[in-house]
Amino acid sequence: MDGVAAVERALAIAQALEVARQPLSLTELAHHTGLYKSTILRLLVSLERGGLVVRRSDQSYTLGPFAVRLGRAYDACMPLEASLQPLMEQLVRDGMESPSFHVVHDAHSRICMLRVDSMHSTLDRVRVGDLLPLHAGAPGKVLRQAAPDPQVADISPLLQVSFGERDPSCAAVAGPVFGPGQELLGALSFSGPLDRFNLSTVHVMGPVLLAACQKATSLLGGVWPHG
Predict the structure, then answer these.
(1) What positions does the domain IclR-ED occupy (predicted)?
(2) Of 69, 92, 123, which marks where a domain is finished?
């Protein structure tokens, strides 16, 4: 099934506003979406009626209150922050690299849903809401359910690593978090500057990360695979 073009265009407008994190004019929306202004105006009428978009007095547009309701409904259905944030904060207190939790956004990208910076003086640049490539980086490999990485297969076939793939100066190790029915919900990772990552440090971090992934799976009602 190909979907509905009008719905995809309306979602492109909402996504442009979400990425911008500030009001956009009609001209700016056209630039960000690649849509004709006349098409955008027609779609904005429906988006305004639904409360997903609000038109301001200066004729710019921003996300509306329905976006807040959607976020709260998502949190109620999938309590990621309540379940995983304390676990991730404890990992930082234990001296681990910065933990992040990623989920699939679309066929080409993943989105960072949660992030806690480590206590190290230098960090990698990942923030909540960032869209990152699905084809690069350890979390992307987990979400794609790529073949086990031979570099860490002796720790667990569930682990994935990346050294400078997405960002030449950064590295990461990631593992899966499962939901009910062993559905893959997301990827929990440790990431940081490349100079603090090598196979020796990954062999130290890997078992800690896997234990955290198993606990996160339990917190979210999932079943950890055995064997």
Answers:
(1) 66-222
(2) 69
pLDDT tens column, 48-79: 999 999 999 999 999 999 999 988 888 777 78
Q: CB within 8 A of 57, min separation 6: which ones?
A: none
Residues 102, 175: Cα–Cα separation, whole Å: 10
Q: Give 155-179 pLDDT, tens digit per residue.
A: 999 999 999 998 999 999 999 999 9
Domain region containing 173: 78-219
Question: pLDDT > 90: what percent of the chain?
Answer: 77
